[in-house]
Amino acid sequence: MTHPTDFARDPARPASPVHLRTALWLAELGLPAMPLREGKLPFGNCRTCTRSACGDRPHMKAAGPCACPAPCHGWAAATTDPDILTSPAWAKTWRQAAAVAYHPGGGGYTVVDLDNADAVAWARQELPATKTVTTTRGEHWIYLGTMTSHNAVRPSVDIKSAWSYARWLGHGTGRMALLPDAVRALAVKEVAAAVPAPSNVVAPVRPGDAVCRHRSPAYLERGIAMGEQRITEAASAIHATVYRTFLAVLSAHGWCGCLTENHIDRLFTAAQAKGESLRHCEIAWTNARMKLGM
Fold first, then answer.
1. d(CA 54, CA 69)
2. CB neighbour list of residue 156: distance below 8 Å, 6 or more residues apart
3. Residues in the chain where the model's pLDDT stays below 70
4. Sign of torsion over alpha carbons 9, 13, 15, 17
5. CB count, 10 Å around CB of 108?
6. Which residues, 6+ apart, have CB-to-CB distance to 225 below 8 Å?
7. What pLDDT does residue 52 have?
8. Is the pTM of this model over 0.90?
9. Which helix (H) or strand (E) holds 285?
10. What does the alpha-carbon distance between residue 187 and residue 287 come to, in Å, rounded to a whole number?
């Protein structure tokens, strides 16, 4: 099967802004695409969706119920739908776009972003060879397979797959390899080093090991309320407090299936009210889940 990095531009395609043509080309291959503004950043949410007022679920694997026609919600805006990419709501964005990005995890890929020569030299020593794309400062190594995205898994090395985007920089060279355990191990190391677990966190009960304690709704409600209170009352170390709170909630309530999106939203809302960005909330939640092996 042809991979996007091997696909030739179709000269017969009707004239359109160059970045839109690239996005449509990627979308044809099932690789979700999106515009980037100056600085390699996604376009910000529209006024209706600012601070998740629209009720979106960007911390989950999809944008959720938000029906905004604009390219909102960062990586979750990436799409393979040509009707969306060419819609009037996106037209101004494409005229202002400085580049095109894609959602690697949505296409079944993982990008190891090597940000300088030292990182590239390290990868050549430690990682299996695969398709590479030259960037402005280093290289993207692209593997077939998906995983959770992580930043700074080692100096100048990020992993971009699920819940992330990567800039489209061309075909690349070499033959793509399957996502190796060596890359997955980098994420495990990053999670383990992120923030130490609080000493009072109870070891998680695996499904089937005990009767669910949430048959009384008050038990779960009390846990979520305590989590909101812990975050709200934090006077310092907000990043660490948010992570530890997410970890504690997941440890006590995350195994039996009673934790709902509404509960997660409440924790995210409390964290954002303390100044945490949505991205930091997503990272903290993912790190807590991986710490517990969820």
1. 12
2. 114, 115, 116, 118, 119, 138
3. 1-16, 52, 55-66, 189-216, 256-257, 291, 293-294
4. negative
5. 15
6. none
7. 67
8. no
9. helix 278-291
10. 9
